Amino acid sequence: MLSVLMSLLNLVHRCGVHAGGACGFKHVNQYPFSSMTSCGNQPLFKDGKGCGSCYQIRCTGDKSCSGKIETVMITDMNYYPVAQYHFDLSGTAFGALAKSGLNEKLRHSGIIDIQFRRVPCNFPGLKINFHVVDGSNAVYLAVLIEYEDMDGDVIQVDMKEAKSGSWMAMRESWGSIWRMDSNHRLQGPFSMRITSDSGKKLVANDVIPANWRPNTDYRSFVQFS
C-alpha cells in the first residue's frame, strides 16, 4: 500500500452530497454508495474511466485516525493539485476513518497522509443498471452505467439494435455516461455490451426495451464475477 496525501478542503460537500458530479451517479447518499464516496484527481478519475472504481483507505497521519480500513468509491473529479494521488472524501467517509468520538476533529484536520489500494467493488443483491439519461431521443441515446462488481469502472460500451447482428461502439459522453449519435431512428430493444478496466466483457441482451423512456432505470440480469 502506498502512502499518499488526502485533502478535505472545501470540496467535501460537493463530493459527498450532491448527485451527479463529474461521474453522473445519482443518490450517492443512498445504498449502495451510502455516502462512502470520494472525488479523485486525474490519476484516479482517469477522464471519467475511473468512475465507479473502489479503494480501501486508511489514515495514518493524524492522532485522530483509527487505523481502520474503509472502502470508498470514486464518484467525482477533484482538480486541486495536492499530490500525485489525491482523495477528496465525503464528510461521511472522512469521519469513518476516525477513532470513536473524534469524527468532527478528524474532518477539520485538512490534509493528512493515508494508505490506499484499489480493490474489487461489491454490490450485494444488485445487477448492473442502465439509466437512460434525460435528453435521449429517437436518434440520440445516452446511458449511465452503474453498479458493476469487480473493476467497478467501464472503458468501452457497445450497443446493438433490435434485429441487428452488429455491435456499434458508443462514445464516452462524460463520467459514466455513454452515448450513441445516430443518423437514423434507433430501433429497440437495445442490447448493451460493456468492457471493464481489466478487459472483461459482459452482455445484457435487450436490457433497454423498445418503449424506453428518458430518465428511467433498466436493471439487467447480469453482473461481473
TrEMBL record:
Signal peptide: 1-19
GO cellular component labels: extracellular region
Entry-linked Pfam families: DPBB_1, Expansin_C
SMART domains on file: DPBB_1 (SM00837)
InterPro entries noted in UniProt: Expan_Lol_pI, Expansin/allergen_DPBB_dom, Expansin_CBD, Expansin_CBD_sf, LolPI, RlpA-like_DPBB, RlpA-like_sf
Domain Expansin-like CBD residue range list: 139-220
Highest taxon of source: Eukaryota
UniProt-annotated location(s): Secreted
Residue span(s) of domain Expansin-like EG45: 20-126
Entry keywords, A to Z: Secreted, Signal
Record has Signal as a keyword: yes
Entries under SUPFAM superfamilies matching the protein: Barwin-like endoglucanases, PHL pollen allergen
Family: Belongs to the expansin family. Expansin B subfamily.
Record's protein name: Uncharacterized protein
Organism from which the protein derives: Triticum turgidum subsp. durum
